[in-house]
Amino acid sequence: MTLSDRLNKIIDEQNISKLEFARRIGVTKNYIYILTGNSRKDTNQNKVISPTLAKVIALEFGYDENWILNGDE
Fold it and tell me: Are 69 and 54 in contact (CB under 8 A)?
């Protein structure tokens, strides 16, 4: 599962929009669209986020920080 897949899973499970997800973690909606693979700027490169952002997502939504970063269970 890619980072895009994991972020989309969180968004789907939380039943929120990408805009709401972005707002709650303090980033732009464009950044979320790039990370989730729904952007014209998407070039199929490996996408990564900082450990700090992974921690913010983990704290805000209750997911494991390592799973968000690496897919580790």
Answer: yes
